[in-house]
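Bump. Still looking for Carbohydrate ABC transporter permease structure tokens.
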Amino acid sequence: MKQLSLSKIAINFSFMVYSAICIIPLLLVLSVSLTDEQSIFQNGYHLIPQKFSFDAYTYILSGNSPILTAYGVTIIVTIAGTLLHLVISSMFAYSLSRNEVKYRNVVSFLVVFCLLFSGGLVPWYILLSKYLHLKDTIFVLILPYLVSSVNVLIMRNFFRTIPESIIESARIDGSGEFNTFLKLVVPLSTPVLATIGLFVAVFYWNDWFTAALFIENSKLYTLQFLLQSIMNNIAFLQGNALTARAAAMQPDETARMATCVLAVGPIVITYPFLQKYFVKGLTLGAVKS
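Sorry for the wait, here they are.
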């Protein structure tokens, strides 16, 4: 018993250290974003701000900064992309899970094939820009990721765990296929839909590569792409300054950290509400005894 208690103490202490390693950098970023710019240059970084200031957030959320526009674009893309992805992928996966659907094995093979092999970056770029004419539109940030082979397979396996008797009873009561899926299967599939939705939302929120390839209009920049531009060039934030003196007065380091806080904030706030479904989703496909 003594050895067991010591092992528990060691495990708990290890988790506490690991949690501190993960949390301290986030606290440092938050602290810097709330610190006066001059205090950063004079005293350096501190976990507790030496001099509180909201100038960075005021500047970022003002009309003089493109970050607010990028924030709006990212929110629209994330919400629309996640909802459409769940609708299309779930309907596709449900059809593959039904035994009465013809050629479902062939289509499943094609899904797995697409999971293992792809056309490559260059054909993908040519298809979206030259043939589909999606370049420099907001649709290019949403449409290419509406279906994922991995997510379709996960959903298909989950739909197969739903008892056949439930679906058959709905059919006997006169329910159509779409009505059965919408009112019976979807409510029973909340764990997998919430888990996949969280993964997809995080992907859309963090996606900067697509904007780097296809977006040239600054009004369509996503938050992550704009953040990358800020990291590479501090002067990007000061592009709207009228004079060199005004540019020198704008927050630089604190604004970058404030942008990081704003970029991470929505995901951190959303996760606790989906945590219980996320834990259930992690056990999808696990072997149960």
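The chain has a mean pLDDT of 80.

Edit: fixed formatting.
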